Amino acid sequence: xxxxxxxxxxxxxxxxxxxxxxxxxxxxxxxxxxxxxxxxxxxxxxxxxxxxxxxxxxxxxxxxxxxxxxxxxxxxxxxxxxxxxxxxxxxxxxxxxxxxxxxxxxxxxxxxxxxxxxxxxxxxxxxxxxxxxxxxxxxxxxxxxxxxxxxxxxxxxxxxxxxxxxxxxxxxxxxxxxxxxxxxxxxxxxxxxxxxxxxxxxxxxxxxxxxxxxxxxxxxxxxx
Amino acid sequence: xxxxxxxxxxxxxxxxxxxxxxxxxxxxxxxxxxxxxxxxxxxxxxxxxxxxxxxxxxxxxxxxxxxxxxxxxxxxxxxxxxxxxxxxxxxxxxxxxxxxxxxxxxxxxxxxxxxxxxxxxxxxxxxxxxxxxxxxxxxxxxxxxxxxxxxxxxxxxxxxxxxxxxxxxxxxxxxxxxxxxxxxxxxxxxxxxxxxxxxxxxxxxxxxxxxxxxxxxxxxxxxxxxxxxxxxxxxxxxxxxxxxxxxxxxxxxxxxxxxxxxxxxxxxxxxxxxxxxxxxxxxxxxxxxxxxxxxxxxxxxxxxxxxxxxxxxxxxxxxxxxxxxxxxxxxxxxxxxxxxxxxxxxxxxxxxxxxxxxxxxxxxxxxxxxxxxxxxxxxxxx
Lengths: 224, 382
Ligand SMILES: Nc1ncnc2c1ncn2[C@@H]1O[C@H](COP(=O)(O)OP(=O)(O)OP(=O)(O)O)[C@@H](O)[C@H]1O
Ligand SMILES: [Mg+2]
What we know:
The structure holds two protein chains of two kinds.
Chain A: H1 5-50, H2 55-70, H3 73-85, H4 93-117, H5 121-129, H6 134-167, H7 177-185, H8 189-217
Chain B: E1 2-13, E2 16-28, E3 33-37, H1 44-51, E4 59-64, E5 67-68, H2 74-79, E6 81-84, H3 96-100, H4 102-106, H5 111-124, H6 129-132, H7 142-154, E7 160-164, H8 172-189, E8 192-197, H9 200-206, E9 209-214, E10 217-222, H10 224-229, H11 234-240, H12 244-248, H13 254-257, E11 264-266, H14 271-281, E12 285-289, E13 295-300, H15 301-304, H16 311-314, E14 316-317, E15 321-323, H17 328-338, E16 342-346, E17 352-357, H18 358-381
Parallel strand pairs in B: 3-8, 3-9, 6-7, 7-8, 11-12, 15-16
Antiparallel strand pairs in B: 1-2, 1-4, 4-5, 9-10, 12-13, 13-14, 16-17
The complex binds adenosine-5'-triphosphate and magnesium ion.
EC number (chain B): 7.6.2.9
Family (chain B): Belongs to the ABC transporter superfamily.
Pfam family, one (chain B): ABC_tran
């Protein structure tokens, strides 16, 4: 489909003529990922912390989270249609958000769990021995130390799911995937390539921004 | 006061039971330092952790100031016990100030009061507060971290301290310095301290009492001098070392042994007069002092026989002097180095403070033995 300079010019003029639409789709795309990963942080971090109490439970939860990631996204959307249809939301924004929320659990839960369990037991013992309650120990010591690794998990989740969100266009969730889907069905390389580039760019920018955020959130004393 | 009563801990492991504490009984009087001493794995850390309930005892009781700690709230109890862990354990995400203020903050101290306290403690251990408060643990040397670990435990001024090899991670020179600093602080703080060590020299230096452990059992619990002079069994004797009598030299200072009434004279004294001073004191040597009362030389009775003139003509220079506050080990070391039987002692201002001789030192060491023997004879007689 892509054969040379003529096509490049065509694509550029397509972008120039449709940049407002593209920006709108990007906005939709970002909103799906941000909402879904946001909820994933709110659920995954507490789960990751909770399972540090029992190795057996931790193994089970992490195993379940890995299984979820192996389900192809198309299949996961398909599975959700009959379930969410019961509340009239079988397709669209909600199933996309739920799918991404589920996919995000693995990197976030696993990184949280690993980071908290890797806190030097001597530090934990010092904190307890000085009279911190388990909650104080978590808030003042374990979570601040775990932040960089948890944030790395969030980054993985975001980058991975920017791709998943592109596929969600097929269940009417909107986003940049719409360009790709239309590009394929209408055999229109301009839309297809614009969509693909936009998705990649979004992933790169998001990764960079989150890396900045990760550095900002890392306690000063833990930086090298 | 800390009292342990039949304290026992058995770890149940897949490979069988490990007895880490076996009916331990001991009492640490208020304001004293008790050293838990023993080879690796003998249960020192376990004993310490049972006191702040990081490890629940299998059986037995722990009393602090007469209160059974099992009846107290764990969190409350720990906030009132200063705890220095074996691995220092400064929190890397907090500044030095925040580290020191951990317990004061848990106790809801006013923020300003906690900050002032942190600065005061840093200055106390010779770290410039302005420079170090805002630093992070990784920006401190091992020895500095260890100092901060100790003052962090002291921050809320707890009456009881548990210290697990608090000076373990530093080189011998800095360790001596920190030990001295800590002893100086303790002479004012008068805290009740349980202090784990595996270094007999540290135990002798720091302890009012020393408890020697083997496989969870106390082998001997006594003053450092008593343990060195009278190890209760083969194990203790081996553990404190074949040079245990030499170690006792550190327990006495020159001040306690030196003769402060040793004869003195001055350069301008006539030899005849000096001779009379010596024969009145029944001594063979007089120390020559200058107008500031500083020792500058010596004269001997033999050389003065039949001589005339002033002391200046016959005076020899002193090979060395020792501070009267030095311990006997330093004194004896100086004697050997100078190949001399005696040395003049000086006080803090460098003034003459007495003479110490090798026979005085041996007599002092012997005195402990005979004093102990007399005491035990009295005990048997009664
Ligand atoms: N949690 C545990 N589970 C099983 N055994 C343990 C546990 N903690 C300690 N032990 C065992 O109890 C014994 C005493 O250990 P402890 O840590 O009190 O020794 P220690 O005297 O402090 O040694 P060190 O000088 O090496 O620090 C050791 O044999 C150790 O292996
Ligand atoms: Mg230990």
